[in-house]
Amino acid sequence: MYTLRILGGGKEVGRAGVEVTDGSNSVVMDYGVNFDQNDKPNFPLQTSPRGLTGFVVSHAHLDHVGALPIYQISGSKPVYGTLMTKVITEVMLKDFLKLSGAHIPYEWVEVKKLMDNFNSMPYGEEFEVGPFKVRLDDAGHIPGSAMVSVKTDRGVVSYTGDINLTETKLSNRAEIEKLKETSVMVIETTYGTFRHLERQKVEEQFVETVKEVVEGGGTVLIPAFSLSRSQEIMAVLAEKGFEYPVYFDGMIRELTRMMLDNRQFIHRADVLSKAFETFQPVRGWEDRHKVWRERGVIIASAGMLKGGPSVYYFKRIEDNPKNAVFLVSYQGDRTPGRKLLETGKFDEQSKLLKARLQLFDFSSHAGKDQLLEILKAASQLEKVVLVHGSEQSVNGFAQLVREKLGVEVFGPENGQEIPLWS
Ligand SMILES: [Zn+2]
Ligand SMILES: [Zn+2]
């Protein structure tokens, strides 16, 4: 009896975790965290370690890897993912422990143990996890990201992880032609009801607008997540020959270096490396005090202005209408970034923002048309399982799939089991 069980990411974005079992052995794909209103981490449901043959990881975002060390506390389980995912995961977990250590059930020793048990696997090659034959293919989401296909003797279960069909500077388009034999698709639904703008136009408009502000004597603050979005922005500016000063602050430097050390995972390593050579890292407080007074661009985490150096810069530049704050990622509920977009204020107490504010859609997730295209790539599709999306997004996309493809669709809750084959 083959069954799928949702450990996390059911009708929510984050703490991904999907278990496939054949009745006696199982494999878990992703094991991440998300955060509640008070920034406390939430973990996925647990599964019995008996019969659990290992974990396969799609990519290194915390909502996909943040809970993995839990299974290294009183035992040990093998973990599989790409080399890029492995090296980034270590940095992400280190940072997670630093920021939220008091609320995390494991420590650095377990992260080290996880790294010892982390097997890096190339794209496109089948390997065994217990009785399952598993393969990773490029998901196009961030460097090293993978779709996971689990072959059983009854059919192939594929899990997209986070997936993108739009080519970016960092990633190629997802290799969806590899999903041809998939019979059960577990697919992310971050943008199940949303259509993205054309990427090239977004890039052009972005660089033009940044130039306009800088040439008008202003400073542009770009709050961006240090993994991936920052590097994407740097590479876009470098490719377009942006000739004013650009500074980057936070973990961006360490992560960019890792990407350039593993450049086979980077679509346009040439422009990323040009950016890294031309643009300036902020090395400490002395630099930080200086750079916001200059005409130029500052890229700093966090991307939704929830702490980190971006908040420091924001407070310095917000009062001058010559300056600008350009958001380049989705702004979650109850974040200062969302509040600014909706009310023009950082929080209840603050005054109205005077600097220019704009949101650019640099998403690294497929929009609804692309999600449909992914499903259509599977020529023997029987079942579709929607995860990693809000309730509204899951319900909206489920309806679209039923209309267009006529296959069985599930939008499961956490803990729900879906029978696959008897
Ligand atoms: Zn992701
Ligand atoms: Zn995710």
Topology of this structure?
Blueprint: E1 2-8, E2 17-21, E3 26-29, E4 34-35, E5 41-42, E6 52-56, H1 62-65, E7 79-81, H2 83-100, H3 108-116, E8 118-120, E9 127-129, E10 132-138, E11 146-151, E12 156-159, E13 182-188, H4 199-215, E14 219-223, H5 229-239, E15 246-249, H6 252-261, H7 269-278, E16 280-281, H8 285-291, E17 296-300, H9 309-317, E18 324-327, H10 336-343, E19 356-359, H11 368-376, E20 383-387, H12 391-405, E21 408-410, E22 417-421
Parallel strand pairs: 3-6, 6-7, 7-8, 12-13, 13-20, 14-17, 14-18, 15-16, 15-17, 18-19, 20-21
Antiparallel strand pairs: 1-2, 1-22, 2-3, 4-5, 9-10, 10-11, 11-12
Helix pairs in contact: 2-3, 5-7, 6-7
Mean pLDDT: 97
- Helical content stands at 25-40%
The CATH architecture of the largest domain is 4-Layer Sandwich
Residue windows where pLDDT falls under 50 for at least 5 positions: none
Structural class determined from secondary elements: alpha/beta
**Beta-strand segment tally:** 22
Note the total helix count. Answer: 12
| Bound chemical compounds | zinc ion
Question: How much β-strand is present in the residues?
Answer: 15-25%
Strand order of the largest sheet: 8-7-6-3-2-1-22
What features would you describe in this structure?
By secondary structure, the chain is α/β, with parallel strands linked by helices. It has 2 domains: 2-194 and 364-421, Metallo-beta-lactamase, Chain A; 199-359, 3-Layer(aba) Sandwich (Rossmann fold), CATH 3.40.50. The chain is built from 12 helices and 22 strands. It has helices at 62-65, 83-100, 108-116, 199-215, 229-239, 252-261, 269-278, 285-291, 309-317, 336-343, 368-376, 391-405, and strands spanning 2-8, 17-21, 26-29, 34-35, 41-42, 52-56, 79-81, 118-120, 127-129, 132-138, 146-151, 156-159, 182-188, 219-223, 246-249, 280-281, 296-300, 324-327, 356-359, 383-387, 408-410, 417-421. A 7-stranded mixed β-sheet has the order 8-7-6-3-2-1-22. A 7-stranded mixed β-sheet has the order 9-10-11-12-13-20-21, with helices on one face. It has a 6-stranded parallel β-sheet with strand order 16-15-17-14-18-19, with helices on both faces. The radius of gyration is 21 Å and the shape is globular. The chain starts with a strand and ends with a strand. The protein binds zinc ion (ZN) (2 copies). One zinc ion is lined by residues 61, 63-64, 162, 388. One zinc ion (ZN) binds at residues 61, 63-64, 162, 388.
